[in-house]
Amino acid sequence: MRVIAVANQKGGVGKTTTAVNVAAALADSGHQVLLIDLDPQGNASQALGLTRGAAEVDVYDVLVDGRAVQDAIVSTRVPGVDCVPASVDLAGAEVELVALEGRETRLRDALRASELGDKIVLIDCPPSLGLLTVNALAAANELFVPIQAEFYALDGVGQLIRTMELVRSSLNPDLQIGLVVLTMVGVANNSQSQIEDEVSAYFGGRLARTRVPRDPTANAAPALGLTVLNFAPSSPAASAYRELARELSDLTTSSELTD
Q1: For the whole model, what pTM was predicted?
Q2: Whose CB among 47, 56, 109, 230 lies 3.0–4.6 Å from 222's, allowing a Cys bridge?
């Protein structure tokens, strides 16, 4: 089982869109994927065609009530992609987790007790650095960071990396930065080149070769409960997500993930 936390506490960077479409692209290439929707907004669940709050057991029940991960897994309309959906109850989980034993490792413990075999698990984190995101980082092998290609691209990312280092030191020493990807990339210009240079200087070889372009199809697809790959398979965004999934799939050896 390979567990990847998709995180950036800055909203509007394409985090959920990236998580859902990379999951679909990985499934297209033959992987079995489980997407855990840890964002109270539940956008990843909806993008996979699931009705918000319809599941009898969801990620809230896993975290707070100790239900088994298998009990919360539902099939989606995307072949090869299952989901542990979010629900409205998840919004209160941050407060409820504080009083629970092992509050930072509830998700990790649940995943370790599951029988997921060689699935790739993608965790769509909320746009914050609270207990939900800490649970994701404690459970993950890798951190996957979408960053919007804008002037303040690195704003707040340093805080995410510091949180990752704290989690490594106290909860999960195996956690590494897997990939960082630039999203919403527009027409090449001097300003954008400067942004790419800045992100590359900060993350070095962790920066993905693939750039996800601005593409209206990426915004239109979720409203229909579809991935971009289903909605517009020949679009620039769909092509980028396939390439990004290939990069992520290739990043599997321990040497590649060692700092």
Answers
A1: 0.94
A2: 47
Token output for 234: 């020949």
7 belongs to a structural domain = yes
List, for residues 70-125, the tens digit of each pLDDT value. 999 999 999 999 999 998 889 899 899 999 999 999 999 999 999 898 999 999 99
Q: In this structure, are strands 176-185 and 207-213 parallel, antiparallel, or unpaired?
A: parallel
> What is d(CA 251, CA 259) in angstroms, rounded to the nearest whole number?
13
Is residue 182 assigned to a domain? yes
The tally of domains found in the chain comes to: 1
- Give CA separation, 75 vs 25, 32, 46, 47, 48, in Å: 16, 12, 13, 13, 9
In a domain, 96, yes or no: yes
Contact (Cβ atoms closer than 8 angstroms) between residue 86 and residue 50: no
Which residue range forms the structural domain that includes residue 227?
2-250
Residue 100: CATH number of its domain: 3.40.50.300
pLDDT tens track for 242-251: 999 999 999 8
CA–CA dist 23, 25 (Å, integer) = 5
How far apart are alpha carbons 168 and 18 in whole angstroms?
Answer: 24
Question: Residues of the chain whose pLDDT is less than 70?
Answer: 189, 252-259
